[in-house]
Amino acid sequence: MRGGAERAPGEGLPGLADGLDSLDDQIIALLLRRAELARGHRSARRTAGLPASELTWENRVLSRYGARLGRPGTGIGHAVLALTDQDTPTGTPAPH
Asked: What DSSP letter does each residue of 19-59 carry, written as one string?
């Protein structure tokens, strides 16, 4: 490096890491909200005497993630659906 000083990766790119952190916080908040809604939907299905989950719908979710995000998207879709299987959320959405 010039001047003999080593720089940390990304140093000199002010705000980019903060922007990524902010996006991650928003994604986490949305995932928690989605899990909350999905648990409510699952509960309503049970109350109505229906199976808690609908495999056809879950497969459409996975297909949508895969179509938009490629092969890794299917794995992300599985992880998103798995969040619904938790009885209680792991955190609360960050305030907007």
From this structure: HHHHHHHHHHHHHHHHHHHHHHHHHHHHHTTS-S--HHHHH
First to last CA, the chain: 41
Model pTM score: 0.71
pLDDT digits (tens), the chain, 96 positions = 455 556 566 565 777 888 999 999 999 999 999 999 999 999 999 999 999 889 999 999 999 999 999 999 999 999 999 998 876 555 554 444
CA neighbor of 86 nearest in space, from 5, 29, 31, 23: 31
Category of 8 on φ-ψ map: left (φ > 0), alpha (ψ -120 to 50) or beta: beta
Structure tokens given for 96: 């907007």
At which residue do the structure tokens 């005497």 appear? 49
Distance (Å, rounded) from C-alpha 35 to C-alpha 38?
5
* C-alpha Rg value of the chain to the nearest Å: 19
